[in-house]
Amino acid sequence: MPDKNIKTIIYKTAMLIGLILLKSSGYAQEQKSTPANESLNQFEDQKPVFKLKEEQLENKNRHLHFYALTGYREGVQPIVSQFNMNFLAQMDRVHGTHRIKMYNLSITDMLTYGLIKSDQVILEVKDPSRYRYDPKYGSEKSWLRKNAYCYELLLPENTLKSMDLVRNHLSRLFKVKCGYQKRLIKTMIDINGTAQESKVEKEFFVITEIN
């Protein structure tokens, strides 16, 4: 169907741009220790979560790998890049690593990379209020403080061939499975001037909890 083809082209184009940005950017930075009582408002998103030791930074065997998943961080804005993608991919050619980062996002927005409107995602979960914001929940800021996450993934160079690797990792962390699935939806069609209810098949992004 045309809609499906257009959606697939847009999605693949956005993912390709994300990977191009990953391959063309760098993030070698100076490391500083952080005082234990320093406010999270001082969080510096341009630096990795962990202060790595010198031998780790050298990464001679090119096996350096870590991830961090935390809750909401005050004073940190979500990433917004091309096509409204909500992650940033960076490459450090000096130390041979790739870094993916996301900040203060709902579970739904993390799994869709910001490419799909949250309310267009089908949730097959026990408690939808944990997965995306709805105005009926009250203040969005209060909801985010309780339900949003920050994520950072550091991988060896040339490991990340597709952003599916990141989605699969997040799915395991949140104990869900997700992806595009076909669903029958009710619709009204006009037959000889008479409106009749019918069902058509449409593709949706679906998040399903794993028991």
Characterize the structure shown.
The chain has helices at residues 2-24, 54-58, 107-112, 140-147, 164-174, and strands spanning 66-71, 88-92, 97-105, 122-124, 149-156, 176-191, 194-209. The chain is of the alpha+beta class and 211 residues long. The strands form 2 sheets. The chain has a 4-stranded antiparallel beta sheet with strand order 1-5-3-2. A hairpin with a 4-residue loop joins strand 2 (88-92) and strand 3 (97-105). The chain is elongated, with a radius of gyration of 20 Å. The relative contact order is 0.16. Residues 4-42 have low confidence and may be disordered.
- SSE order, one letter for each helix or strand: HHEEEHEHEHEE
Q: How much is the radius of gyration in Å? A: 20 Å
CA-to-CA gap between the ends? Answer: 34 Å
Overall mean confidence score, pLDDT: 78
Shape: elongated
* Total of DSSP H or I helical runs spanning 4+ residues: 5
* Class derived from helix and strand content: alpha+beta
Low-confidence stretches: 4-42
Helix proportion range? 25-40%
Strand order of the largest sheet: 1-5-3-2
**Strand-residue proportion:** 25-35%
Sheet with the most strands, sense and barrel status: 4 strands, antiparallel
Instruction: List how many beta strands DSSP finds.
Output: 7
